[in-house]
Design goal:
It is a single chain. This protein has 143 residues and is of the alpha+beta class. The protein is built from six helices and six strands, in the order αβααβββααββα. Strands 1-2-3-4 form a four-stranded mixed sheet. Strand 2 (47-54) and strand 3 form a beta hairpin. The radius of gyration is 26 Å and the shape is globular.
Length: 143
């Protein structure tokens, strides 16, 4: 992966949505700081994070973290933890896992070069476009 000129960070890309105030933003950014290493592979101007909470501090509160990265599908993580701190950690950890999964799907497999090695080429039968049978091998198989 090539180095990104302006890597994304939580502090730069995070927006607070419904249920949070701008005063909560710094505290949340500190909670999400461990995502910085995972986001560093993406451009800051092409990455957005938004965290929101529905029914804050109520029994059925729901925290949602959305992540938009240019050229990728939007990732949405949610938590129904009753403790706000635990819910934020839950959505953070889920986003990290999903970013790792997305990266793994896009990377080539470690043994790809083994599949790309071409087989020894025999003579080609022009009528069929298939390799001609190797007479020595054919004798060994029939014996």
């Amino acid at each position: 992966m090539s180095a990104v000129a302006n890597p994304a960070t939580v502090a730069e890309c995070l927006r607070v949505g419904a249920g949070f105030s701008q005063g909560d933003r710094n505290w949340i950014a500190e909670q999400f700081a461990t995502l910085d290493s995972r986001l560093a592979g993406f451009h800051a101007d092409a990455t957005e994070l938004e965290v929101s909470v529905k029914d804050r501090e109520a029994r059925g509160q729901k925290v949602t973290l959305e992540c938009w990265i240019a050229g990728r599908q939007k990732i949405v993580t949610t938590s129904a933890e009753e403790d706000l701190h635990a819910a934020l950690n839950d959505v953070r950890d889920d986003l990290r896992r999903r970013l790792n999964d997305a990266k793994t799907r896009q990377e080539p497999r470690h043994n790809k070069h083994l599949r790309d090695v071409s087989q020894p080429q025999g003579q080609v039968d022009p009528a069929e476009g298939l390799p001609a049978a190797d007479p020595i091998r054919a004798d060994a198989e029939t014996a």
